[in-house]
Write a structure and sequence with these properties.
The complex is a heterodimer of chains A (272) and B (703). Chain A is α/β, with parallel strands linked by helices and 272 residues long. Helix content of chain A is 40%, strand content 23%. Chain A contains twelve helices and ten strands. In chain A, helix 3 crosses helix 5 and helix 3 packs parallel to helix 6. Chain B folds into three domains: 144 residues, no CATH class; 186 residues, no CATH class; 235 residues, no CATH class. In chain B, the strands form two sheets. In chain B, strands 1-2 form a two-stranded antiparallel sheet. Chain B has a two-stranded antiparallel ribbon with strand order 3-4. In chain B, a hairpin with a 7-residue loop joins strand 3 and strand 4. In chain B, helix 1 runs antiparallel to helix 3 and helix 15 runs parallel beside helix 18. The chains are: A alpha/beta (272), B mainly alpha (703).
Chain lengths: 272, 703
């Protein structure tokens, strides 16, 4: 068996009296594509925010490649090799696509103030730009390098956000609803693309997703959350036939359907 | 269904009457402030045109322009009617006011309420000199006809091509500025010298432009040759001909500089000018225009110098020169732009660098020509450029709205002042008898006995310490606000600015900082080269301090350009765009914020040190919140995050009010109007930063 990339042990996150994540334990092996699904407000994004350091969980532990990352700041976690995208796209709008990727490389570059003033970082910069061009090509954005990110179409912005996350050479990539707002054709492309991420870049991918076709088609492992608790886990087929999952979803079918219309970017707290 | 319906097209435009009404209100207020009476004393063209007539044309013309502008596609009759109606009605309002004033027994009551009011009717200021019996007819009638005439004229002019209109407006504006400032600027350059420079430049330009098959190097050689020829001609003329001190074209000896140079340096200058002309044929469009405007400006200065004051002939010549330098290069521009675009990238870089070097050379010799007053203004502008670049790091890059930037400025100024004057820091504890009368020592007595002090430093030793002190203080101030965002951050920094000012005024710090009397005198900087056999240069005037400022501006520009294109600059901009996302990308927000605080404060500290050294004394009143507001406004007007924007913004916000000093209190009014207009027309700033083109050109241009 391959080693464990991410291990979450009995993690709990509270907001006042609300227990957004309750005693969740979860393991993702290296090289897997794992999905986290669940009805709205189940605590999926809160779970992501805990793993990436935006929130500090009250209880439990988070191990990344065997070492605890609980309590570290978001930037320290990024340095350790976890990259993420956001549910509502959060690119640096006025910067060009290429510059967005260069910001993503921040942890992998060394140049400080002195290097910038003396011009000693020239070689590093050139290599970084070359690498960023490769990444643009990889996500299908070749030729858009000098476009300000706001000027790109929605689908291209999604890809650019993934490219920016890839730029730090992460070991684990967290995707928060990568197909939100996409049509079926684009969703199929995204499915192929996520597989390529694992196969060509040897990444471990962990995603939150509502599109069941994508989840069932691409995942090695599916975890289901409801009301902050993990209610089921296993292969896609096993999860699909789990009575607990069916109950959770049947009770909230209308919610899942409304999801398609509900694109208002809420703050992560409200979203849970 | 309430669909807003456009009124049927009638002869009267829907904008005419409202615009006229608003303009009339403004006109009444301006008249009651005594604007026309005050401006009547300011001659633009001696004995011909005073400023009040310019103001009259503006207050009648600008509203009329806004009335006819939307009607540009309408038939001429409709435009004429609306324009003349607007101008005529406004003039009628003015005429009514003058009539009322004339029929008053005395205007004492009026002056009691509007203290600046000056009588208009007895002098016939707005009525072509008619007063008394002739006031109403023909005086006021003529005034109304003038208003209608201006409106009608603009209604016809609105169809003119944009180039002609802008040329006319800019030339007229420059003429007014020249006329108002004639006293300060008439010693800039003598006419023969200006003509020599213009002819040499045109010669270089002409040879390079019409040289058959001219590459960059052949053009440069041609330009230099033209300069050489010009130099030879000048040599002949000076040695025995018209340009000799007693010759036909002999110049005002007091302002003759170039022609009095020894032969070899003069020849070199002219060769360089010829070369500059040649390079101008390859310059980017904006630089091409700027080069010609500079040359035209020099000739205008020369004409003014030759006549001594702005009389009718000088005014006409000035107008023609500016119109010519604005219009003629337009005709030359397409070829220059095409040649510039056709240059191979490496050569384009070289040409651009040469042109920037030429610009720098012009900047360096400028104070020799510009005289005390204008150089002083330029010093102030550069002071604000340095601060603007520093604040840009905070606001334009890191996205931290700092309203207390003056704090760092004051800390730098006081630190440098303390280190270069006798104070407890520099001389330590001395017994009171020795220092009787010097209040800076009071604090020391009995406090820390035996402290020897560090000795009085020179400006150059104190400068880095002042910058360091300012940077450290900036970081210290930054620590408590690290977790604050947006509005909250701005309010706290606002408090810091005020705290600093209060501390400098407080009586408890008086022994050290001098309270309201500040610290003065501060010794001027001295460049002492006697150790290597050089001279000792005292930087004790506006013209010499100028070079310190130039150095500071170049340093600031260098640092910001280098940082902006680096990992640090990208991290700052990412932070400004989205803090959370930046943090998720591994940007350490705390470290980046502190770095921004420190660097931006360092620039403010540097300006503070320069400021104290230039004024030879610092006073708490120089460090009010207005400084923070001014710096912030100039970077917003110029375009956040853009260096050319800072320069233009500083020229507009600091240079312009100084240049408008002739307008007295109205300069703030004019200034405010300009700011509002600038922000309405270009909310993103005058020169917003261009996106960085980092991807290789084919990739960037392909999609």
């Amino acid at each position: 068996m391959s080693e464990t990339m991410l291990a979450v042990r009995r993690m709990t996150k509270r907001f006042g009296g609300l227990m957004a994540v309750r005693q969740v334990t979860l393991e993702i092996p290296q090289g897997a594509i794992a999905s986290l699904i669940g009805p709205n407000g189940a605590g999926k994004t809160t779970f992501f925010n805990c793993v990436t350091g935006f929130y500090t969980p009250e209880e439990g532990d988070i191990l990344f490649r065997g070492a605890s990352i609980k309590g570290l700041r978001a930037d320290q976690i990024a340095w350790r090799g976890i990259a993420r995208t956001f549910q509502n796209i959060r690119l640096f709008g006025e910067m060009t696509a290429l510059e967005n990727i260069l910001v993503g490389m921040h942890p992998r570059l060394k140049g400080g103030v002195l290097a910038a003033l003396t011009g000693l970082h020239g070689g590093e910069e050139r290599r970084a730009i070359a690498r960023a061009m490769e990444l643009l090509e990889f996500v299908g954005l070749a030729g858009y390098g000098d476009y300000p990110a706001v000027n790109l179409s929605y689908g291209l912005q999604r890809r650019l956000e993934i490219a920016r996350a890839l730029a730090s050479n992460p070991a684990l990539l967290l995707l928060d609803e990568p197909t939100a707002g996409m049509n079926p054709g684009e969703t199929d492309e995204m499915m192929v693309f996520i597989r390529r991420l694992r196969d060509e870049l040897a990444l471990t991918v962990f995603l939150i997703e509502h599109d069941m076709k994508l989840v069932m088609g691409v995942s090695d492992q599916v975890s289901v959350m409801d009301y902050g608790q993990k209610i089921s886990e296993g292969t896609p087929a096993a999860v699909q036939s789990d009575p607990a999952v069916i109950e959770a979803y049947l009770g909230t079918v209308s919610h899942t359907m409304m999801e398609e219309f509900d694109e208002t970017p809420l703050p992560p707290e409200a979203r849970g | 269904m309430a669909i807003p319906r456009k009124p049927a097209p009638g002869w009267l435009s829907q904008h005419t009457l409202p615009t006229t009404f608003y303009a009339a209100v403004v006109l009444v207020i301006l008249t009651l402030t005594g604007m026309f009476g005050n401006f009547a004393e300011k001659d633009v063209i001696t004995g011909r045109l005073a400023l009040h007539l310019v103001a009259l044309v503006l207050v009648l013309g600008v509203p009329a322009w806004f009335v006819v502008r939307p009607l540009v596609a309408a038939p001429a009759a409709q435009r004429l009617l609306n324009g003349a109606l607007c101008g005529g009605l406004l003039a009628l309002v003015l005429a009514t006011m003058v009539f009322i004033e004339a029929s008053l027994e005395s205007i004492e009551g009026l002056v009691f309420v509007f203290q600046n009011y000056r009588p208009l009717s007895p002098a016939g200021l707005l009525t072509y000199g008619f007063s008394g019996d002739g006031l109403v007819f023909p005086g006021l009638l003529l005034l109304i006809l003038t208003g209608a005439g201006i409106g009608a004229l603009l209604a016809l002019a609105v169809r003119l091509p944009g180039a002609v209109l802008s040329t006319a407006v800019i030339s007229a504006a420059l003429l007014v500025v020249f006329g108002l400032m004639a006293l300060q600027i008439r010693a800039v350059i003598s006419l023969p010298e200006a003509l020599v420079l213009l002819l040499t430049l045109s010669g270089g330009y002409g040879v390079a432009r019409w040289l058959p098959a001219g590459g960059v190097w052949r053009r440069a050689a041609g330009g230099a040759a033209a300069g050489l020829v010009a130099g030879g001609l000048v040599l002949l003329l000076v040695n025995g001909g018209a340009l000799a001190p007693d010759g036909l074209l002999a110049a005002d000896a007091a302002v003759t500089r170039l022609l009095l140079l020894p032969e070899l340096p003069r020849l070199m200058v002219l060769v360089l000018v010829g070369l500059a002309g040649a390079l101008l044929t390859l310059a980017a469009p904006a630089l091409h225009q700027a080069g010609w405007l500079l040359a035209g400006g020099l000739v205008a200065f020369g004409v003014l110098n030759a006549s001594g004051r702005m009389n009718d002939v000088t005014a006409l010549l000035t107008l023609l020169i500016f119109a010519g330098t604005l219009l003629l290069p337009r005709w030359l521009l397409p070829a220059a732009a095409a040649d510039h675009a056709a240059l191979p990238p490496a050569q384009r870089v070289t040409v651009n660098r040469c042109i920037w070097l030429g610009g720098l050379a012009v900047l360096l010799v400028a104070p020799v020509f510009l005289g005390q007053y204008i150089t002083n203004v330029l010093d102030l502008v550069m002071l604000y450029i340095i601060m603007g670049i520093g604040l840009n790091i905070m606001v334009g890059y890191a996205g931290l709205l700092d309203l207390g930037y003056v704090a760092s400025f004051a800390i730098g100024a006081y630190a440098c002042a303390l280190l270069t004057t006798p104070s407890v820091i520099t001389l330590g504890c001395v017994d009171t008898a020795t220092v009787a009368g010097l209040r800076h020592y009071e604090m020391c007595v009995g406090a820390i006995a035996g402290w020897p002090g560090i000795g009085i430093l020179t400006f150059w030793q104190a400068l880095p310490l002042a910058i360091l002190a300012s940077a450290c203080a900036g970081m210290l101030l930054g620590i408590p606000v690290l977790r604050l965002r947006g509005d909250y951050f701005a309010i706290v920094t606002l408090g810091f600015g005020e705290i600093t000012r209060v501390i400098t005024r407080a009586s408890i710090t008086e022994p050290l900082l001098g309270s309201a009397q500040g610290i003065s005198p501060i010794p001027f900087p001295v460049i002492n080269l006697s150790a290597v056999g050089g001279p000792v240069i005292n930087l004790d005037s506006a013209q010499t301090v100028y070079y310190i400022y130039v150095g500071g501006v170049l340093l600031a520009i260098f640092v910001l350009t280098r940082l902006a294109g680096s990992r640090i600059g990208r991290a700052w901009r990412a932070m400004r765009a989205d803090e959370d996302a930046a943090e998720a990308m591994g940007v350490n927000l705390v470290r980046m914020r502190l770095l921004a605080f420190a660097l931006s404060a360092a620039f403010a500290g540097m300006s503070g040190a320069f400021f104290g050294a230039q004024l030879r004394g610092i006073f708490p009143d120089s460090f009010t919140i207005l400084v923070s507001i001014n710096v912030l406004s100039l970077i917003i007007i110029g375009g956040l995050g853009s260096i050319p924007g800072v320069i233009v913004g500083a020229l507009m916000l600091v240079g312009l009010p100084e240049a408008l000093r002739e307008l007295q209190d109205y300069r703030l009014l004019a200034f405010g109007v300009l700011l509002v207009v600038a922000m309405l027309l270009r909310p993103q700033g005058l020169i917003p930063p261009a996106p960085r083109q980092l991807a290789t050109p084919p990739a960037g241009g392909a999609a």
